[in-house]
Amino acid sequence: MARPCCVPRRVMVAARALLFWALVYSYCGVCACIAGLRLLWSIGRRPGETFRWVMRENPPACLNDPSLGTHCYVRIKDSGLRFHYVAAGERGKPLMLLLHGFPEFWYSWRHQLREFKSEYRVVALDLRGYGETDAPSHKDNYKLDFLITDIKDILESLGYNKCVLIGHDWGGMIAWLVAICYPEMVTKLIVVNFPHPSVFTEYILRHPSQLIKSGYYFFFQMPWFPEFMFTVNDFKVLKSLFTSQTTGIGRKGCRLTAEDIEAYLYVFSQPGALTGPINHYRNIFSCLPLQHHEVIMPTLLLWGERDAFMEVEMAEITRIYVKNHFRLTILSEASHWLQQDQPDIVNKLIWTFLKEDTTRKRE
Fold first, then answer.
1. Measuring CA to CA, which of 64, 129, 220, 223 is 20 to 30 A from 279?
2. What's the mean pLDDT in 72-80?
3. Quick one: fold of 61-207+281-355?
4. Can 307 be counted among the known catalytic residues?
């Protein structure tokens, strides 16, 4: 009796990879078609408004508010890139490093810059490609390895060898990865509305609802079209992300003021300002899943339950990857933009976590 043929492992791996990329590009095409239909609908209704794009020449006063800190720059020797950041608190105090999400920049941490400067040197960074930080032109310069190394290099350039690391959204993804790759540099990890990366990649493949919510990850794989769609109707998409009923900050939250919105419009209306941020996403499917998973420092995960982009079930699953004290707090009335939406509650939760004894391994 003949033995059944065994499919070589490499063939199975290749087949899985083929199916994975077929899914990525198929969904990319679906998202592009939906965006194209929305564009045609906008042109049909208001052709004049559709292509109106105002570039803001002068920053609103809030971006130069001295109570938020001092605008600073640091050039990294190895990469040659110049990074912009805003720093509050005295030099020499323990470092608290803040990593923003998309589409945000250092200003999304304004409430935390004011709050924690009494005991920390608080640094709110513009990530590679954002705001006043240098933006390499090629998408390959935004691979996760480079983004992780950026944080390590910035930490060392600021004269520190460790920090309290806080990240939101995409900045949360980077914070998780820095904690995994350079655990000696992170004394405590705080992540806002982003699960452990392994949870995210496994969950999205098993839950179509999350796949739909993460459609922009796939849409952003296209060249130039995502950037263009953001400019339609004078950045209507950008405004609605923060203000609409489905994705924005709720009625019970700390709503963005007109000046806050103008700050975002000022930064992202500059020529080419969207390409760097979107390039962050154009490499993600070639960088995940992770080879190493475990997080070994005390970790706080904060989550707005009304997050329109991330399902809350991922927050609880994250617990299995943290091999130290882990605290999860879910705020029922809060949105994806948690540190801006509920700043007083978020700041209080962070203070509690920073001051508590985390010698206990798990909660």
1. 64
2. 96
3. Rossmann fold (3.40.50)
4. no
